[in-house]
Amino acid sequence: MESKIILVRDEFTAELEKAENSADLEAIRVKYLGKKGPVTELMKGMKDLTPDEKKAFGQKVNDLKSELTEKLTEKTKFLKEQEILKEIESMPEFDISMPAALGEGSYHPVTLVQRECERIFKTMGFAVEDYSEIVTDYECFEALNIPKHHPARDMQDTYYLENGQLLKSHTSAAQNAIYKKYKDALINDGVPIKAIFPGRCFRNEATDACHENTFFQMEGVMVDKDISISNLIYFMKTMLSEVFRKDLKVRLRPGFFPFVEPGFELDISCLICGGEGCPSCKHSGWLELCPCGMIHPEVLKAGGIDPDEYTGFAFGLGLTRLVMMKYGIKDIRDLNSGSLKTLTQFIDE
Ligand code: FA5
Fold first, then answer.
1. In the beta sheet, which residues pair with residue 251?
2. Of 91, 107, 216, 274, which is the most exposed, with the fewest CB atoms less than 10 Å away?
3. Which residue minimizes the CA distance to atom 22 of ligand 1?
4. pTM, two decimal places
């Protein structure tokens, strides 16, 4: 029996030496380690041995099996490396100092629309703020009146880091920091808080024509004495008419967000299908674009602002969806596709 082990090892080694590609390796694996191969045969042959012989011989067959498996893995790695080297050698030589064949390049459509929105809001006196993509649970939820175990968290499942931080699921996660940054100027000098903060957001959710797991929003807040829903509607209308430069059908309906009271959903009539219904608007004819509302007193308090003295509005514009509507892009996933053919055709107006 021992001599059989040696024979199997030698034959295997000789065949492995000759293997030239992954198909050869697979054939060798099946031949030697498959159900009908010599290793299985050796195992079966042990039935006539005494228990002590079985133990010792079984160990040897197991060692043989591990050895053959290891050698196969090594050879697979070796052949793969050879394949890569061959591919590199066959590549045409190129001069890295040559200008790119693609021409000048262009801005991503999200960048174009984001800049346009920033320009519009800057002319209305809003500061543009940048905020981290990694935030704390407090910033993303607790400071926004969404305590642990609140059902509103279900709508915004995101990606968590091992240290408990998370990738922000909405730009509202920056609200608390913005209030804290500007509250002294508001309280001591009477300067209203007016800021927008665009940013990338992440959600652990299934993708479709109008949902991505990574997308952009643009948050805006305004806080002062006597701010009302009329101010909110004025700024939303101005922004949309400037971005689209045409008449739009817009509807405002009640919407629940724990950080605003009252809260609204601002929808626009789908510009892909003209309101008829299509996959881009989930066949409703309307696209949820910009939830908004009056900032909840608890949220102002968490930002160090007295809600009895000050009021404000906040909105969370779906920037990527706005891009879809502005440029007639039917599937949101095209925007993350990295396809230059798709992404380089948009120009700054
Ligand atoms: C929010 O994220 C709230 N933070 C918005 C808000 C801010 C409300 C301030 C009130 C006051 P919502 O989950 O609905 O809400 O997302 C806001 C917008 O982001 C949506 O209307 C949509 O345009 C866009 N959006 C949401 N999820 C996705 C997604 N998966 N892919 C692309 N766009 C999305």
1. 267
2. 91
3. 318
4. 0.72
